[in-house]
UniProtKB/TrEMBL annotation:
Protein name in the entry: Acyl-[acyl-carrier-protein] desaturase
Domain of life: Eukaryota
InterPro entries named in the record: Fatty_acid_desaturase-2, Ferritin-like_SF, RNR-like
Note describing how the cofactor binds: Binds 2 iron ions per subunit.
Organism taxonomic ancestry: Eukaryota, Viridiplantae, Streptophyta, Embryophyta, Tracheophyta
Keyword Signal: no
Gene Ontology cellular component list: chloroplast stroma
Stated family: Belongs to the fatty acid desaturase type 2 family.
Pathway in which the depicted protein is active: Lipid metabolism; fatty acid metabolism
Pfam families: FA_desaturase_2
Species of provenance: Triticum turgidum subsp. durum
Length: 436
């Protein structure tokens, strides 16, 4: 598409100019949302204006209003000073930063694209579920009865986790649009031949099977209210997702590396629990998905590892930026149209069932710090901000571990109340959740 390096440079300049104009417009909008006030060091995130839903934008406005109060305002300002300005990520849209990805394209062709599995050898949902065409009517009926019999032994908490994971996977249209928002790597035509564009499409094609196979399994199991589940998927795709620094490939690849490892852990734990409950077909399905996620994690971890190699200062600052704002799960905006707090309830069940826990979040961070050699970054190669970012990231797992220990100690001292939460996904049957 771009026949020469010159054309690409012209394109980058145009992107930067249009990005800057866009940024000015957004600042103006933010300023209006704040009643005209943008305090020093308190500029509202452009990402908030771009990607966050109305209720979160409202929250940002409230923060601004609170900040005018004595004491509380000072604390908020101090926190922002520590976090850095929300606009910091915009510097990653400068041509010099984006050109890194042009130079890395041959490397991506050799080291990232080969991690995709061609359709001819990859598993397909039909390999893991009864196939009417090959089994015939009687064989298919018997296989479906077998699925229902095995699924009958799954506890409700496990079903809630499984539905939550499936709904998350089914919102793939949103996720494909995410890397297509990353400047310099996005698929400009929809069928671009660049290594980055082919990776994005190939990755999406692999991800598509995850929601597909889980949806079909749950349909055949007869254990869930499919209409409520489908409604949740519909709502989630309509709502989109929250992501900080959405156009920066540095921040974006860090986010996806974290997420791929998180989904691998979640599906892997679901597979283990399914096996314990005697549902071997579900264990196989979740195991196959977890293996895919692991391969995807490898690809994104490699990309970010390369960024740490060639631009350690930029990479560690982007990592600190993302961790300070926390990695929010992609399905955080899910709703079934009844429970306004559905995502939190699903998260609490997943934590309690050991499917995805706060300890997993910390262990993912520890793993990535280790993979990317963050602790070994030499101070002389970093700016002041880079050194602060490195120190912040390296101290974070210890902070999270301390919080975990305090929570355990608190729980050991006094019995926690239990809440009974009904989930529409399982016909409003309640699941007991121990409150934190
Ligand atoms: Fe997936
Ligand atoms: Fe994945």
């Amino acid at each position: 598409m771009y026949s020469s390096v010159e054309n690409r440079l012209v394109y980058r300049c145009m992107q930067w100019i249009s990005g800057s104009l866009y940024y000015l417009i957004l600042r103006r909008r933010c300023s209006r949302a704040n009643g005209g006030r943008i305090m020093a060091g308190m500029t509202m995130s452009t990402a908030n204006c771009l990607a966050q839903p109305a209720q979160l934008q409202g929250e940002a406005v409230q923060v601004s209003k609170r900040s005018t109060r004595t004491g509380r305002g000072a604390a908020v300002a101090a926190r922002h000073e520590e976090e850095g300005t929300d606009d910091e990520w915009l510097m990653y849209l400068e041509p010099a930063k984006l050109e890194v990805f042009d130079h890395l394209e041959p490397w991506a062709e050799a080291n990232v694209v080969p991690l995709l599995k061609p359709a001819e050898v990859a598993w397909q949902p039909t390999d893991l579920l009864p196939d009417l065409a090959s089994l015939g009517a009687d064989g298919f009926h018997a296989a479906c009865c077998d699925i229902r019999a095995r699924a009958a032994g799954l506890p409700d908490a496990h079903l809630v986790c499984l539905v939550g994971n499936m709904v998350t996977e089914e919102a793939l249209p949103t996720y494909q649009s995410i890397p297509n928002r990353f400047e310099a790597v996005r698929d400009l035509t929809g069928s671009s031949g660049t290594a980055w564009a082919r990776w994005i499409r190939g990755w999406s094609a692999e991800e598509n099977r995850h929601g597909d196979v889980l949806n079909k399994y749950l349909f055949l199991s007869g254990r869930v209210d499919m209409r409520q589940v489908e409604r949740t998927i519909h709502n989630l795709i309509q709502s989109g997702m929250v992501m900080n620094a959405a156009r920066s490939p540095y921040h974006g690849f860090i986010y996806v590396a974290f997420q791929e490892r998180a989904t691998s852990i979640s599906h892997g734990n679901t597979a283990r629990r399914a096996k314990e409950h005697g549902d071997l077909s579900l264990a196989r399905i979740c195991g196959a998905i977890a293996a895919d996620e692991k391969r995807h994690e490898l690809a994104y971890t490699r990309i970010v590892g390369k960024l740490f190699e060639i631009d350690p200062d930029g990479a560690v600052r982007a990592l600190a930026y993302m961790m300070r704002r926390r990695i929010v799960m992609p399905a955080s905006l899910m709703t079934d149209g009844r429970d306004s707090d559905l995502f939190s309830q699903y998260g609490a069940v997943a934590q309690q069932a050991g499917i995805y826990t706060a300890s997993d979040y910390r262990s993912i961070l520890e793993h990535l710090i280790n993979q990317w050699g963050v602790e070994e970054l030499v101070a002389t190669g970093l700016s002041d901000e880079g050194r602060r970012a490195r120190d912040y990231v390296c101290a974070l797992p210890r902070k999270i571990r301390r919080l975990e220990q305090k929570a355990h100690e608190r729980n050991d001292k006094k019995a926690r109340p239990t809440a009974s939460i009904p989930f529409s996904w399982i016909f409003d049957r309640p699941v007991n959740i121990t409150m934190a």
